[in-house]
Amino acid sequence: MGLGLVAHLVRLGVLSSTSDHASVVSINLFVALLCACIVLGHLLEENRWVNESITALIIGLCTGVVILLTTKGKSSHILVFSEDLFFIYLLPPIIFNAGFQVKKKQFFRNFMTITLFGAVGTMISFFTISLGAISIFSRMNIGTLDVGDFLAIGAIFSATDSVCTLQVLNQDETPLLYSLVFGEGVVNDATSVVLFNALQNFDLNQIDVAVVLKFLGNFCYLFLSSTFLGVFAGLLSAYIIKKLYIGRHSTDREVALMMLMAYLSYMLAELLELSGILTVFFCGIVMSHYTWHNVTESSRVTTKHAFATLSFIAETFLFLYVGMDALDIEKWEFASDSPGKSICISSILLGLVLVGRAAFVFPLSFLSNLTKKTPMEKITWRQQIVIWWAGLMRGAVSIALAYNKFTRSGHTELHGNAIMITSTITVVLFSTMVFGMMTKPLIQFLLPASSNTAPSEPSSPKSLHSPLLTSMQGSDLENATASIVRPSSLRMLLSKPTHTVHYYWRKFDDALMRPMFGGRGFVPFSPGSPTEHTGR
């Protein structure tokens, strides 16, 4: 990502300076700022208020002020914000690593709730924010905004910032909350982007039942097709590496193949106008379940740290990037003739975000709790508040979609569009810094450490040792649990549908999928193969 990304930035003209010398100076300055973010993030590791994303955002803002002063108000950034740069280079490694590192048992145990929050909840938030924008902004005379623009606002501000949220929650201290907020964040981003793209393909001035049904059908098609493409890409990489034993001759090749196949899945989804976020996320899950176990031991260590490092750099780059671009003087000048109106619109949008979030978190949590059999499996009132609060932050996805809708080439001369851009930036900065800084203390207040010990896994003593993560091999695990008396399939399905689906998935996985695509315990021994040092 490092030099290659910079080279692309120079070639694509993303760097604000045109001369080679100025470009080199800009690159050096930005890399130095990235190093400063990492060092300060380390020094503030134990701080209960500030995390690395907020640190990068503050450094970006401060750098923007310095550049603004040195250029006498002409520019505040080294780079011009580009939604292409964000979606093509920065987002893929973040989302892929999220899928690659996820604790799959936790994720799929709560999959129905995650889907409920991420898909249905995002739709509820979308309609809530859109209706609020239509009813309020249409009376404020803020420019030539139509129904399509107001619906786009609903999609833009329905996208939560999963990057910042993941840095706030701890996967080991609050496994249920992390699973729900993390899973919802990924599905939410994908749903918001799919919604936004779907809105661009319809004539929203003539809305009827047929248009709504076609819109929903297109949405479901994009959702399912993107997921299938990600699974297919992951399985293809697993099959190739398993059959060819690339690691016998070069571990570099199998590591490179994993990275390129993951990135290819994302770009192929974008080429086919699907959701690259969903595609690369499920590609990461499948690769961690099959492909990762087919490579050599050294490649496993390399890929695990390489993906995490790329994700970390992209996250830091992202918040630093947003912080500097927030002070771009050009877009603020077009909205400067009505600062009071801009502040009012930002406040209204922030209020709609709060209401839209609450409109689905609490009702859907209630519905989810109706399906749970034991109190320990239910989402408590305090946990619901944390879920509601943690999802209030808005980030680069919202900014990128806003730029896509309301600007061309990074700026706009239309008054209404300029106000929407500046308002979006204001909401992102306020929600990230204020809500982000208050999330850790809120979690510590609502959920003391004594109550954070795996509330989502009470049903069995081995539930924390997921078959997808445990050191036991698939067939060994089944033998170890064969003595457990199981109720009838119908009774299992009615009483514990999640456990039943997982049980039959394990049988299907061990009988068909792993022998074909590999995975832990199903790679045949061969000199130089992934199992050379472990054996069976």
Task: Report on the architecture of this protein.
With 536 residues, the protein is mainly alpha-helical. The chain has a domain at 83-446: Na+/H+ antiporter like fold (Up-down Bundle), CATH 1.20.1530.20. It contains 21 helices and no strands. The chain has helices at 2-12, 20-43, 52-70, 83-101, 104-109, 111-137, 147-156, 162-168, 175-199, 209-244, 251-271, 276-294, 297-325, 329-334, 339-370, 381-390, 396-406, 415-446, 474-480, 489-495, 497-517. Helix 4 runs antiparallel to helix 13 (297-325) and helix 9 crosses helix 12. The protein is globular. 44% of the residues are buried.
**How many strand elements?**
0
Q: Strand percentage, roughly?
A: under 5%
Q: What's the mean pLDDT score?
A: 76
List the secondary-structure elements in sequence, H or E. HHHHHHHHHHHHHHHHHHHHH
The profile of the biggest β sheet is: none
The shape, in one word, is: globular
DSSP helix fraction: over 70%
CA(first)-CA(last) distance: 37 Å
Which class do the helix and strand fractions yield? mainly alpha
CA radius of gyration is 24 Å
**CATH topology heading of the domain at 83-446:** Na+/H+ antiporter like fold
The CATH class of the domain at 83-446, by name, is Mainly Alpha
CATH architecture annotation name of the domain at 83-446: Up-down Bundle
Tell me the number of helical segments per DSSP (H or I, 4 or more residues long): 21
Poorly predicted spans: 9-18, 450-488, 490-495, 524-536
Compile the SSE list and pairings.
Blueprint: H1 2-12, H2 20-43, H3 52-70, H4 83-101, H5 104-109, H6 111-137, H7 147-156, H8 162-168, H9 175-199, H10 209-244, H11 251-271, H12 276-294, H13 297-325, H14 329-334, H15 339-370, H16 381-390, H17 396-406, H18 415-446, H19 474-480, H20 489-495, H21 497-517
